[in-house]
Amino acid sequence: MTGSAPFRNSADAVPKSSGAHIVVSGGRPIALTGFMASGKSTIGKLLASSLGLEFMDLDLLIERKTGTSVAEIFSRDGEAAFRKLELSALAECTMISHPFILACGGGMLTLPEARSILARSYLRIWLDCPLEVILDRLVSHDTERCSRPLASGRSWESRLAALYEDRREIYKQNCDIAFDIRSGESAEESALRLSALVRGLAS
User: β-pairing, 30-33 with 100-103?
Assistant: First the structure.
């Protein structure tokens, strides 16, 4: 794999605003977890802007570090190799001294080491998105769907439904807050509700 730039210097990180920022749970960063297409990146950016925090997307940080897309890493090196990169990126993010919002990959919680790091160092918010909403999003954005290694190929919908059910318990057992994503609600509306919830924790 090419590239040697540190994860921290990724151009995909969204700087925090210059105003005051919200501090929750002793200044811990916030990790958004959940299934693919549940809104972690989109809502995460909006939430970070609302709270005056920096936003980082773990998948994009890995792509920046390696100079390779997630799909290419899966295809060329396999899922196990990607998970090692994911764990390394998470560990490096955890060394950052100020609070921030981190969008985690959908499969990261399958790693015991990642679950341990998140439990110890982050406020973990699970975006609990209904399967039908996820499938609708993926169908509506077919080009983006094909870039997701686990949502491509034949019978992807049935495979994804099985994977969704397999992972739900992992998400549920490894979160501090379960946040429901409502069908028909925009990302902006979800982010507003989540922002209010987080602000309530800080008050």
Answer: parallel
pLDDT confidence of residue 140? 72
Residue 42 or 156, more confident: 42
Q: What is the DSSP string of 23-88?
A: --GGG--EEEE-STTSSHHHHHHHHHHHHT-EEEEHHHHHHHHHTS-HHHHHHHH-HHHHHHHHHH
d(CA 198, CA 203): 9
Tokens of 170: 């992992």
Beta bridge partners of 128: 180
State how far the alpha carbon of 52 is from the alpha carbons of 23, 179, 189, in Å.
10, 20, 18
Residue 101's DSSP bridge partners are 30, 55
Check: CB of residue 129 under 8 Å from CB of residue 39.
yes
| Beta pairing partners, 123 | 30
> Tell me, what amino acid is at 202?
A
Residue 149: band (very low, low, confident or very high) from pLDDT cuts 50, 70, 90: low
Q: How far is CA 120 from the centre of its chain?
A: 17
Closest Cα partner for 40 from 98, 106, 110?
106
Strand, coil or helix: what is 177? strand
Q: What angle do CA 135, 69, 66 make, to 5 degrees?
A: 145
Contact 87, 114 (CB under 8 A): yes
The strand pair at 54-57 and 30-33 is best described as unpaired
